[in-house]
Input
Amino acid sequence: MENGNPPSMSNVPELEKKLLERIRNSKVSLRIMHVCGTHERTIAKYGLRSVLPKTIDVISGPGCPVCVTPEDDVNIAIALAKSRVTVVTFGDMMRVPGSAESLLDAKSEGADIRMVYSIDDAVALAEKKPELEVVFFGIGFETTVPANAAALLRNTPENFSLLASQKRTPPAIELLASDANVDAFIAPGHVATIIGTKPFEPLAKEGFPVVVSGFEASDILLGINLLQTQVEEGCPRVDNGYPRAVKPEGNQIALKIMDKVFETSDSEWRGIGRIENSGLVLRKEFEEKDAAKKYEDLYASSLEDIRKKAEGKDKKRCICAAILTGKAKPPQCPNFRDECTPKSPAGPCMVSQEGMCYNWFKYSREGGSKLA
Output
């Protein structure tokens, strides 16, 4: 809003105008948490917060996989690379700070760390270079797990292994439901294409309206209006606002592949802590592909050095933990825009295009306070 007046609606498409009218006409006030970095990107890019009524507050939860990858998992990846192992991972992970440095820092010092677009690229490298010990640092939510599982089921070469830092989304949302000041949830559309809508039903049983949304501006606005409707009807449930991609039962083929290779475990989430049953680890049959176990003796000394180095490091005051749990917004961070930028990130929320700090930095000072 500028000068206290609502922004112009002249460049807003007709469908979005109708949805906004319905949202504004509702008397329901909601504090909504979305749990998807792509949702935050859409909200910020298209300035949705600027056109929503003051009765609707949309905050970001831990929906950025890069942002919740634990420091020590990054440390292990760096320690592996410093122990003559070739570490390959996604581009965003290269710049995520560990306890003392990032993978990119280690690469600049001579460690063999390479960027790939998928686990298949990593397997291809291992096949082409049998003299290398190749480790794919696989991070992410349920969306990326099926590809990793499928690769391991195809009998990867002996010199290939996986450093897995995979998360399950529903347990984290359930934890935040009991901890954060939130009325309703927009569930992640990408994740729901794999797991479906049913895993979010426990939230509805606890009284939280839930909607699975897609990634267009109209999808987000539809999701907000569906949440308002649930409150007006006094009937919390899980609405599927993304039926063109999401089925209630999810992708059964992908789920079966995941279950063959991975099993659930407790897992550490950066900024949140240990969450019960929120992780995925390799089953016993695939332990020989577990890089953390396979090379434990090799990288132990390097990992100890990294942890010692971190003890004496003067860290910038990063509040990613508060941002990931909806307790703060980027401008409240003392580093935001000054000591923390996409070119020089102090914390993981500024690294990825799915990070809240990154999107607030790129699109506006208020996370989408102006129309695009």
